[in-house]
Amino acid sequence: MSAPVQEKQAYEQSGLYRLRHSAAHLMAQAVTELFPGSKLSIGPPIENGFYYDIDFPSTIKEEDLPKIDQRMRELAKLDMPIVRRVAKDRVDAKRIILEECTLGQGDATALYKLELLDAIPEGDEISFFEQRATDKQGKERVFIDLCRGPHIESTKEIKHFKLMSIAGAYWRGDVKNKQLTRIYGVAFDTKEELEHYLNMLEEAKKRDHRVLGRELGLFMFSPVVGQGLALWLPKGAVLRDVLSDYMKDEQTKRGYLPVVTPHIGNAKLYEKSGHIITYKEKMFPFMEDEEKETFILKPMNCPFHIEIYQSALRSYRDLPIRYAEFGTVYRYEQSGELAGMLRVRGFTQDDAHLFVREDQLLEEFKGVVDLIQVTRDRLGLNEMRFRLGTRDPNSDKYVGHPDNWKLAEDAIARACDEMGLDYDVSVGDAAFYGPKLDVIVKDALGRAWQMGTVQVDYNLPERFELEYIGEDGKPHRPIMIHRAPFGSLERMIGFLTEHYAGAFPFWMAPVQVAVLPIADRHNDYAEAIATALRGFKDKDAKLTGEMTGFAPIAVKPSSNLRVQVDDRRETLGKKIRENQRMKVPYMLIVGDNDIEAGTVGVRSREDGDLGAMTLQGFLERAGY
Length: 624
Ligand SMILES: [Zn+2]
Ligand SMILES: [Zn+2]
Description:
The protein is α+β, with helices and mostly antiparallel strands. It has 3 domains: 8-204, Threonyl-tRNA Synthetase, Chain A, domain 2; 209-261 and 311-499, BirA Bifunctional Protein, domain 2, CATH 3.30.930.10; 513-621, Anticodon-binding domain (Rossmann fold, 3-Layer(aba) Sandwich), CATH 3.40.50. Helices cover 34% and strands 25% of the residues. The protein has 20 helices and 28 strands. The strands form 7 sheets. An 8-stranded mixed β-sheet has the order 11-15-16-23-20-19-17-18, sandwiched between helices. Helix 13 links the parallel strand 17 (384-390) and strand 18 (423-427). The chain binds zinc ion (ZN) (2 copies).
């Protein structure tokens, strides 16, 4: 759900990491005892806990978790010492897996472990996790698992844990493989930490953007439309517009140029970019037309923007060129990994690509970081950190020459240092074409979320042979910066919904003001108020409020507020409760006295009843 709070490397060396690793094995032991024939695959520690992916002989449900939980506690109390055993060689390792790890439950249960063994590089040490003890009945309880650790010393340290949920997960993350059952658990060093975490989850549940999104009329999902494909309801669509307008304004001030590109494109373009070789598993199935041309649903906007760059001869004076697009992209996320708006299959990035000269890179990069910081302030977020994702030199999921990677990684690190940014380095978290600086923000509950990103890229310009003519009259290669300060509108709005528990700040709220007539005879006045606040003017540039004869409804002509009139025939009390539940920042209640005095009764979401005011007075109060 959220990005790792701890810096990855430090976490992996912590005692908590060992505890959680060991808890995963303890759970696996409980499972093999309770459900003989279960095939174990992998069970790593994660943020706050651990999981284990298991191929069960028959379906298990969340109702089975307490049983597994209880068995884990029983086993933990046996105070089993945990030892690390090293296999003599590969043959010995295979024997241990088949004879000892399976605990007499049949060779077939070793299926996944044998595959994991095959994946261990030749020459690497192969080690096992082992715990055993004799229980009160004199029966030996033992569990052996292929794992290099590190683990804790004894099971008795595993006390403060809870099994949380079940999900589906494909073996090796590949949809073509069998779907396994993933059991998630959390584990902490102390009872207090566990309780604090569970309380936070309770609070988070109340703020769940999937629930609030529907209640507040922001967005929904429909199985008929498809998993991970969001439907934006009117209020959510307004929120999208408010955020995009804000970003577009900021970008215009900073010299960005808008571009618009299609949702599908020829596969050749994505072959050239390297997407098809490195990114294929995240792409929707390809489409072929009658002329045998293959098209793909775009997973990223970059190749299109590159085509636009290449459509003309560029000179050093043209650079930097900053192309911005709210581009909708599609990624084939596994169904088990979809999570409301936080992980969807179609989303709109606040994307831009900057084509810059070497001597402009540092300043342009800083400009992007500045935009991110300005955005953070506008969104009302206080805490923000950065994570520099670099290439894993041992992986083949990247394109480009190591020299280019070094240049890009150094450029980001230098810019971060010069700006005094607080950042961690995370090896292996780069994009396939370049290193990236991820923005991590903390929400009101202290949870860390990965939001926007900035990437420096020397590789795509090379693959596409991008050029500009330098001052020397010779061709030079530009560098690309990919950046999305929000990340995506979907993720950002999901995040903001939870951060604000649906009570968005005034400037952002889909409905900023609700006008509540007390009785039917106040409806026309309520409409006149709404029209004035909306800033509507007729062709003679007169406020409609004036035209309707309800003077004085004079407001700044630029108010342009999002206003709704609630003229349902309900009691005033019910209408107030309802608008409060919808988290509307201000209600303006109008009755006989208001019509007479030209006022409105103001009620604020946070401060309750504020009494009668003129419209101008209300706007000042709202900070408008
Ligand atoms: Zn382990
Ligand atoms: Zn890009």
